[in-house]
Amino acid sequence: MATENEKPRVSEYMTPDVVTVSPDDTVASVAELVAENDAHSGFPVCEGRHCEGFVTARDLLLADTDDALVFTVMSEDLVVAHPGMAISDASRVILRSGIQQLPVVDDAGKLVGIISNTDIVRSQIERATPGKVAKLSRTLENIHDVETREERRSVALAELTPTQSKVYADELEGRRYELERGLAEPLVVIDTKNEKLLLADGHHRVKAAARAGIEAMDAYVIAIDEPIELGMAETARKEGLATIDDISVVDYAHHPLVETIERLQDPD
Question: Which one of 17, 89, 139, 180 is separated from 39 by 20 to 30 angstroms, measured CA to CA?
Answer without folding.
Answer: 89
